[in-house]
Amino acid sequence: MANMKAIDEEEDVIDNYPGFTEVENTDIPGLPNPFQHLHSVSEAQNAWFLKIWKPFFVSCLPVATLKDTFWWFFLQVCMSHMEDEENRLFDRIAGVFVSLVMTAQVDVKDRRFKVYADCLAQAVYTSFYGAFPDSKERLGDDFKRDLADRS
């Protein structure tokens, strides 16, 4: 598991964790525009599929997944005693994923979901940079592996 002691020291975010709500996804601190963030992650990928990828990935359901996955991972590594919140976030992530699969065009579904987890993990990872700017040195290889293993 990633060493998140420095993030623990950034009490501003931890002490002010807004919690889970049924009706909306909790914003990520330091990430004012999640659509632009997903756009940037998309631009970093191979260009051959951007035409079919960006309309899918830079949309409301992936933004909801990004926000919930950020907080789910945050709770797992920083606040593991909040298992009920983790479970509720995970259930909502799973529900959104099912919606993404069910609404995806059949002819491009395989190509999209082949890279979805990697792109989501990249988006969550880079979101931690904005949320915890003083902990960048702790967001190294162990953190990346832990995130990739859980995505």
Give an account of the 3D structure.
With 151 residues, the chain is mostly helical. Helices cover 69% and strands 0% of the residues. It has 8 helices and no strands. The protein has helices spanning 5-9, 11-15, 34-43, 50-57, 60-78, 83-103, 106-131, 141-150. Helix 3 (34-43) packs across helix 7 (106-131), helix 5 packs antiparallel against helix 6 and helix 5 packs across helix 7 (106-131). The longest helix is centred in the C-terminal third of the chain and has 26 residues, at 106-131. The model has no long low-confidence stretch (mean pLDDT 84).
Straight-line distance between termini: 14 Å
Contiguous uncertain segments of 5+ residues: none
| Alpha-carbon Rg, integer | 15 Å
Helix content: 55-70%
Tell me the strand percentage band: under 5%
Shape: globular
How would you describe the oligomerization state of the chains in this entry?
Answer: single chain
Number of strands: 0
The number of helical segments is: 8
Order of helices and strands: HHHHHHHH
Helix/strand class: mainly alpha
Global mean pLDDT: 84
Biggest sheet layout: none
Task: Give a brief outline of the structure.
With 151 residues, the protein is mainly alpha-helical.
Descriptive keywords:
151 residues, mainly alpha
Layout of helices and strands:
Elements: H1 5-9, H2 11-15, H3 34-43, H4 50-57, H5 60-78, H6 83-103, H7 106-131, H8 141-150
